[in-house]
Structure formats: C-alpha cells, structure tokens
Write the structure tokens for this entry.
Amino acid sequence: MPRKKKIAELLASLPSWHGVGGRSIASSASFGIMGIVNLTPDSFYDGGRSPTTGEGIDRALQFCGDGADIVDFGAESTKPGAEELAPVEEQFRLLPVLHAIRKAVPDMVISVDTYHAETAASALESGADVINDVSACDFDPGLTDVLVQYKPGYVLMHHQGRPKTMQEKPRYGNVRRQVAFFFEREMTRLVKAGLPENRIVLDPGIGFGKTCAHNVELLSHPEDWFSFGRPILVGISMKSLFGDLLGLPPEERGGATRIATVLLWEKGVFWHRVHDVAGTRRALTLAAALRPEQWKVRR
C-alpha cells in the first residue's frame, strides 16, 4: 500500500473531534498543533509580548503561516498565583483579535481559553470553534449551559484548585487513577447535559494543581486515557516541569519542550498546545519521517 494512502486510512480511523456546527477539527499530518496566543501581560512565558490587539493578530497570522491547525487565544492568565480577571476585561482584550482573525483567515480553527460562561458565549457568537476550559465548568457552572447551546469543540482539562492557590501543596492518593476517574465522571456529565461526545478532547492539565512528580507520572502513562475513545491534548510548552527537572528558565525551555512533545506523540498523544508552532512542526515531522511505523497514534 502506498505510504500516503496508508497514512490517510489510519488517520480516518482515529477518534474524530468536531466544533461548532459539527465542523471537523483535524490535521492532514499524524499530529495536531494548537498555537498559543496570549493576550495578557502576565503570562508565565510570553506575558507582554502580544498584549495589544495588533500584536495578537500578528502572532496569530504567523502561526497560521507556520502550520498551526488551531490557534488558541487566551486573555486571562491561569499561571500559578494568577489573579482572576473580570469577564468584561477579558472580552475587551479578546474579541477584537478574534474578529480580525476570523475575517483574515476564515478557515482557521479558533479556540478560546476561558472558563467564563459570558466570555465563551461572546466568543462563540464571534466565530470561535473551540472552548479550552481549565476548570471543567467548575469555576463558572453556567459554562455547561453555553456548551450545550452552541455545541463547540471542548477541551476538558483536569485541575485541582483555582490558579491563585492550585500549587499550594497539591495532593493525590493516586494521581493516575484520580485523573482517569475525573475524565470518566465529567465526560458522562457533559454528554448527559447535551454536549455531543465527539466535541470533547481530554487534557490532563499538566501543572494545574500538580507537583513535578505528579506531572511526570501522568505524562509517562497517557495510555490511561485511550480507553475513553477521545483525542488527547497535552499542554507542556515551556512549563515549570522543565525548570524542576532540568533547571531551565522559561526562555530556555524550547528544546526540552520539543523533545518531550515528540516523546508524547510516540506514546499516542495527537494534539499538542505550544508556543513555538514552527519548531514543533519541524520536530514532529522529522520524528514521523524517521519512525514510519509509529503512524498508529490517537488524536
């Protein structure tokens, strides 16, 4: 069988992901890349680099050219210790950029990183396809109603605590078992509420109420989540995990991020949320070329 045909058939058999209106969220490669555009001055990694409307638009357009499958806009920092932002301020930062990108690149899949029901509804009305929620509807229960009404793609992320306090002595009896139980419980709740299962992807929430040991334990066993039949998305880009393990400051974590991303892809993780779209695409493309037997990935 020709290689391109084999790849296409394998990708077609993987769990699908859909956004607003049933739009397919996919990649032509054996991996998917979500590019991070922070519209906040206090992000842990690139705060202040793209806080204005114009800079946010430029960064998103760059990601489109670099090959991002999804562009993820966030207007409120959720780093450890971050203060909460009022939805009106969040929307002031977010909506002008979202409108401009939707007009400039009509086919781009747009994700919005928010846990506020009001912001999510405004973003979906403005053309967003995906809601990336760090809280699993816990911080604003009204978000469930928004998800059921608009039926967007939804990133269901595990967390423990709120950003301001989540890294104050996080504890688990068995972190792998508890994250898997969380996914099963929350998927069941959302589907019963009326969100189609094919809208959901699973994110273990690396760094959200977890120690370095917890993060490593989860990343070592992504197979724990395959039985749910949903794509897996992991966000490890430039995170403190690499500071804890390697002593690297945020600005020097790019290489470690790319290596870990390739290793996770080889373990079956399809979607990767990153700051460096071009570098990540090159790393994953090279890994795919050198390991052609690894096409059996799970998106």
The longest strand covers residues 32-38. Residues 18-288 form a domain with the TIM Barrel fold (CATH 3.20.20.20). The chain has one domain: 18-288.
